[in-house]
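Each record in this resource describes a single protein on a pair of labelled lines. With that in mind, the following record should read easily:

===
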Amino acid sequence: MADKKQNDNKNEKKRKESILDLSKYLEKQIRVKFAGGRECSGVLKGFDPLLNLVLDNTTEYLRDADEPYKFSEDTRSLGLVVCRGTSVVLICPQDGMESISNPFVSQD
């Protein structure tokens, strides 16, 4: 019985808290950049600690065929999308950026 309690305590310590608090962006328009260069925007409907995202009314911004580092004016409507957290590089609100304190510096 005591071993089981120790295992439960170890499992609780292993779980890491997500650095990002995306709950303030729920039901708001966000823009997401992915590894590989794709970008999309949509309404954040849900997320988990691994940064898997659920976006609704999603629009993908297409790249220019001649210059792959530039976006063209073309977009593609995707609708409801589940974004895998391991490919997410950047998440920002569609209306702009917000300054946050550095999460890696101890707040004494």
Observations:
- The longest helix spans residues 2-14.
